Amino acid sequence: MPHTPPGDALQLPAPAKLNLFLHITGRRADGYHELQTLFQFLDHADQLSFIPRQDGKIQLHTPIDGVDHESNLIVRAARLLQAHSGCRLGADIWLDKQLPMGGGIGGGSSDAATTLLGLDHLWQTRLDEDTLAELGLRLGADVPVFVRGHAAFAEGVGERLQPVQLSEPWFLVAVPQVFVSTAEVFNDPELTRNTPAIKVRSLLAGGGHNDCQPVVEKRYAEVRNALILLNKFVPAKLTGTGSCVFGSFPSRDEADKVRRQLPATLPSFVAQGRNISMLHRKLQALAKK
Ligand SMILES: C[C@@](CO)(OP(=O)(O)O)[C@H](O)COP(=O)(O)OP(=O)(O)OC[C@H]1O[C@@H](n2ccc(N)nc2=O)[C@H](O)[C@@H]1O
Ligand SMILES: Nc1ncnc2c1ncn2[C@@H]1O[C@H](COP(=O)(O)OP(=O)(O)O)[C@@H](O)[C@H]1O
């Protein structure tokens, strides 16, 4: 099979997300942290292509350096859907990776969600959204929001989601060239885990903070420097456990203008925040055909 997908493959985006704020409100007995966070999608995405196979094999033709085939979240998602649905079909899959890895913008989780929804469509397994979200949660705390595809206020470990309607500004996202380990941040003794739980979530659109930020700034000079730089132009914040940092603007032009002033050593991109994910917009368009 070629490294590029054939023209008749089903091509679907796997968009990024931002955590507009991330409060850690406690820690469960199993060590996982309880959060309150606001997720919004970005119109910036990996692209996945799928072709069904009759022999049941799952084959990803575009390996990611440092991630072996069987641990890639795309392959794991495909196998989970196969096992759960009893489907005998397999798939050839191609990934065009655009999203930085370990950046806190959820690329791996989004790839997993796009695989679950894409193969559910191609294999006609027709699982309902709750079942797909539950399968997604087994792959990672962030997968359910990508399965549901609506901007959301999240609680629990990120799986209890309430859809929200937010404004859709343009974001400038800077990508410090470091890999931040989520587990390492959550295990840091200095991480604050006692932000009081908020009740009126609507108050926090545009507000709130990221409890992981002080820990990540302390451990990674690249992230600290990116925040200092961006803060010269716009209030900047960390997304997830990092490394990416972002600021919001009323228009693409204003975001681009600041982007042009960042040094070449700090890669960045501009994308609009969206309440309905690119994946769901594309699936809705396909359903209308
Ligand atoms: C905190 C968030 C916010 O979006 O960070 P990012 O990964 O996006 O940066 C996510 O919920 C992360 O989700 P995800 O990246 O899927 O994490 P998982 O694979 O489930 O967990 C990785 C490790 O992080 C820790 N972990 C994760 C989530 C959580 N609520 N509490 C934790 O303590 C655990 O040690 C776990 O072993
Ligand atoms: N399809 C995938 N895309 C990205 N990362 C993947 C994928 N499958 C497995 N991984 C693993 O998940 C880790 C975190 O991925 P990613 O979702 O990009 O970061 P984050 O959770 O910080 O947004 C990667 O370093 C990699 O080891």
UniProtKB/TrEMBL annotation:
<feature type="domain" description="GHMP kinase N-terminal">
    <location>
        <begin position="72"/>
        <end position="149"/>
    </location>
</feature>
<dbReference type="Pfam" id="PF08544">
    <property type="entry name" value="GHMP_kinases_C"/>
</dbReference>
<keyword id="KW-0418">Kinase</keyword>
<keyword id="KW-0808">Transferase</keyword>
<feature type="domain" description="GHMP kinase C-terminal">
    <location>
        <begin position="203"/>
        <end position="266"/>
    </location>
</feature>
<dbReference type="InterPro" id="IPR014721">
    <property type="entry name" value="Ribsml_uS5_D2-typ_fold_subgr"/>
</dbReference>
<keyword id="KW-0547">Nucleotide-binding</keyword>
<dbReference type="InterPro" id="IPR020568">
    <property type="entry name" value="Ribosomal_Su5_D2-typ_SF"/>
</dbReference>
<dbReference type="InterPro" id="IPR004424">
    <property type="entry name" value="IspE"/>
</dbReference>
<dbReference type="InterPro" id="IPR013750">
    <property type="entry name" value="GHMP_kinase_C_dom"/>
</dbReference>
<dbReference type="Pfam" id="PF00288">
    <property type="entry name" value="GHMP_kinases_N"/>
</dbReference>
<feature type="active site">
    <location>
        <position position="142"/>
    </location>
</feature>
<keyword id="KW-0067">ATP-binding</keyword>
<keyword id="KW-0414">Isoprene biosynthesis</keyword>
<comment type="function">
    <text>Catalyzes the phosphorylation of the position 2 hydroxy group of 4-diphosphocytidyl-2C-methyl-D-erythritol.</text>
</comment>
<comment type="similarity">
    <text>Belongs to the GHMP kinase family. IspE subfamily.</text>
</comment>
<feature type="active site">
    <location>
        <position position="17"/>
    </location>
</feature>
<feature type="binding site">
    <location>
        <begin position="100"/>
        <end position="110"/>
    </location>
    <ligand>
        <name>ATP</name>
    </ligand>
</feature>
<dbReference type="InterPro" id="IPR036554">
    <property type="entry name" value="GHMP_kinase_C_sf"/>
</dbReference>
<dbReference type="InterPro" id="IPR006204">
    <property type="entry name" value="GHMP_kinase_N_dom"/>
</dbReference>
<protein>
    <recommendedName>
        <fullName>4-diphosphocytidyl-2-C-methyl-D-erythritol kinase</fullName>
        <ecNumber>2.7.1.148</ecNumber>
    </recommendedName>
</protein>
<dbReference type="GO" id="GO:0016301">
    <property type="term" value="F:kinase activity"/>
</dbReference>
<comment type="pathway">
    <text>Isoprenoid biosynthesis; isopentenyl diphosphate biosynthesis via DXP pathway; isopentenyl diphosphate from 1-deoxy-D-xylulose 5-phosphate: step 3/6.</text>
</comment>
